[in-house]
Amino acid sequence: MRVFTEEVRLPVAATDTYGHYDPSLEIDDVLVLEDGQPQQIRSIQHLPANVLLVLDTGNDLGLKDTKLTRDVALRIIAGLNPGDRIAIMQFATKPELLQNWTSDRAALAKVLKTKLNSGKNSRLSTAIAAASEQFRETPPGTRHIVLVTDGVDTPGVFNPQTNNWFLTNGVNGQNVNNSFPPAAFQFFLGQVGDLPVAGDWNGDGFDTVGVFRTGNSTWFLSNGFLGVIDFKPFIFGSLGSLPIAGDWNGDGIDSPGEFTPKVGLMSLNNVIGAGNGIGDIVFNFGQSGDLPVAGDWDGKPSVP
Question: What is the pLDDT of residue 109?
Answer without folding.
Answer: 95
